[in-house]
Design a protein that fits this description.
Layout: E1 5-8, E2 13-15, E3 26-32, E4 40-42, E5 50-53, E6 56-59, E7 68-75, E8 82-91, E9 100-106, E10 111-118, E11 124-129, E12 132-133, E13 142-149, E14 152-159, E15 169-176, E16 179-190, E17 197-205, E18 208-214
Parallel strand pairs: 1-8, 9-16
Antiparallel strand pairs: 2-6, 3-4, 3-7, 5-6, 7-8, 10-14, 11-12, 11-15, 13-14, 15-16, 17-18
């Protein structure tokens, strides 16, 4: 009788379903149409990833869409036959839907940078700034908060008051037992331009004047 199975994403899955009897039972497999057991439907014919041979269900390069409940049925024309249900879980590394995005903030305003990773729990998330590890305790302006979701985790990096040095590339890295992924936020801190300084007159001819100045930040 099949039991619940877990497979790493991208691996090849094999689930046996054996039944004895005379005449020899014919074994077939069906998949639940939803995320809960029930409403089983025949497997898609001619699927390159899913096939049944001698009562064994084979799924090659298994992915999240293969996850769910499967029904194994054995019938030989005598009696009602036998059936068993197995739950297939696909264990995946973390994944970010958005790999890179821009975010702006006015200098002196608060800002919150957020990244959401999907995958098998537990998931750990760390933050880098310009490819260096960001430790919230090293700067009182930073606070990191993490929330566990049903299908992953969210990490919020709060900046109490944005400064010029926060114009940087922030990267969150999510890791679980099956791998890791990262997502980056290009933070742009905006501010009112400073007054130019070191103004000098280089040349003055008739109605024309040529000047130069030092560029502010």
């Amino acid at each position: 009788e099949p039991t619940d199975k877990a497979f790493a994403q991208g691996s090849d899955a094999e689930i046996e379903c054996k039944a004895d009897g005379f005449p020899r039972p014919v074994v077939t497999w069906k998949q639940a149409s939803g995320r809960s057991p029930g409403d089983y439907k025949d497997l898609k014919p001619n699927s390159p990833d899913v096939k049944v041979e001698n009562g064994t269900l084979f799924i090659s390069n298994i992915q999240k869409e293969h996850e769910g409940y499967y029904l194994c049925e054995a019938v030989n024309g005598i009696g009602a036959g036998l059936s068993a249900v197995t739950l297939i879980n696909v264990q995946a590394p973390p994944q970010f839907d958005i790999k890179l995005r821009n975010q702006t903030s006015r200098r002196g305003d608060p800002a919150v940078l957020q990244c959401e990773a999907k995958g098998e729990k537990p998931i750990g998330i760390i933050w880098n700034i310009n490819n260096k590890r960001l430790e919230a305790k090293s700067d009182s302006r930073y606070t990191i908060r993490e929330e566990i979701l049903q299908n992953g985790a969210i990490s919020d990096l709060s900046i109490k008051r944005t400064e010029r040095e926060d114009s940087a590339l922030f990267t969150c890295i999510a890791t679980n037992a099956f791998g890791s992924d990262d997502s980056s936020i290009n933070m742009i801190v905006q501010e009112v331009p400073e007054m130019p300084f070191a103004l000098k007159v280089l040349d003055k001819t008739g109605r024309l004047i040529q000047i130069t100045w030092a560029v502010p930040y």
